[in-house]
Amino acid sequence: MKKVLVVDDSISVARQLEKILTDSGEFQVVGHGKNGMEAIRLHQTEHPDIICMDMNMPGMDGLTALRTLVALDKNVKVVMVTSLGGVGDKFTEALRLGARTVISKPFEADNVLKILREL
Amino acid sequence: MAVKFFGQFLVEKGVVSREILLQAIELQESVNLSFGATALTMGLLAEGDIEKVHNAQRTEDLRFGDMAVKLGLLTNEQMMQVLGRQKNTHLYIGEALVKVGALSADQLPALLDEFKADQAQYATDKVAIPAGVADAPFWEMLADLTYKMLTRVALLTFRPEPISTAQSLPAMEVYAAMEFSGDVSGRYFLGVSAVTQKQIAREILKEANVDGEPKEVLDDTVMEFVNVVLGNVAAKAAQMGKAIEIAPPELVEAAGEIQAAAGQSALRFPVCLADGDRVELAVFIK
Predict the structure, then answer these.
(1) Distance from CA of A44 to the nearest CA of B (A)
(2) Model confidence over B38-95: pLDDT tens digits?
(3) How far is B71 from chain A (nearest CA, A)?
(4) At B68, is the secondary structure helix, strand, or coil?
């Protein structure tokens, strides 16, 4: 079972993602960070296979955290899950920084699972 | 389900890879020059002129071409020539993907049709913004997209009330807000009753019953709804050529009415729900 770290300042999004991933029986959520700093810390301690991370968070935002995560581990698999996914510049910046892809909010369970399975 | 741009749609469908999309975007960036760079290549402006325009833009909100005309660096006719050149040489992402070999020219029309059909649900419908309000098309899009998200994300049935300007917002049980800034700036508000908050919570959490949820979780769902609306507004704004940045959503702790700050006004676009309840929607324009 693949280990997933969820990073989002919203408790409700974290719950929604955890439910989708756990119900699939294919993924196990191993942690929930609320900002970029927590993403970096939890990546070091939990060693997730995949990180699902928001962009717009208080404190360290998702793109700043992505830059650091890729510098620490060039094989890190980060998927940005964000309401800003449809903003072309943000989408492009995320891919350039090393995100595997970007999922826009509101998201659909099937689409989230399809994308994570393909990583 | 969200507002997307064509390249993102193709990556999600698995038609192109992220690596190829980035190649196509790099090609676009090398071809689609800014107004200043285009005028430079046409020999109409010198490097020093570009700096003069940029300096002047720091104190006055004018587009590059308009400022160049105002400073006497370009005539109106030359400005139109530069705009014409930009338009004629503009490379769209679909064309760029064909040029880098990711798509064939024959595939493109069908994929564009599929994309348009996917995004048709977010085409902006007519919303009447009061006369005299600047950036009316942006506010029209924001109000309309909010209505669409209330329908599709929160599954609420409602009737929009006439949009008006005001100096304050009425007291509601829960208000969430979000700052946005850039080509258009303001503070977005969504106010709901406890009953409507639970409806939003049910749909955000995908839970049939949220009666036992703590206040913190219920409040978070309203903030997340605001986040989804404004993120998609930013995506639509980008399609309109306007860049906005959004801040994280906040809960507004207000005992009563919310007053606009001095020099600001609120654009109110509330809706009346099918059960008689109301959702207060507004932007304090900066």
Answers:
(1) 26
(2) 999 999 999 999 999 999 988 887 889 999 999 999 999 999 999 999 999 999 999 9
(3) 31
(4) helix
Q: What's A15's domain CATH number?
A: 3.40.50.2300
pLDDT of residue B255: 64
Sequence-ordered list of residues with C-beta below 8 angstroms from that of A104, at least 6 positions apart, any chain: A82, A83, A85, A86, B1, B2, B3, B4, B8, B231, B232, B235
**Residue environment code for B113-127, b if the CB has 16+ CB neighbours within 10 A, otherwise e:** eebeeebeebebeeb
Beta carbons of A34 and A40 less than 8 angstroms apart: no
Q: Which residues of B touch A56 (CB under 8 A)?
A: 227, 231, 246-248
Q: By residue range, what is the domain housing residue A28? A: 2-117
Helix A109-117, helix A11-24: angle, nearest 10? 60
- Domain boundary, last residue among B121, B146, B176: B121
Of B4, B223, B247, the CB nearest to A10: B223
Contact B22 A92 (CB under 8 A): yes
Compute the distance between CA of residue B76 and CA of residue B71 in angstroms, rounded to an integer: 12
Q: What is the CATH number of the domain that holds B280?
A: 3.40.1550.10
Q: Which residue has the tokens 């968070």?
A: A57
Question: What is the interface pTM, i.e. ipTM, of the complex?
Answer: 0.91
Residue range(s) defining the domain that contains residue B38: 6-121
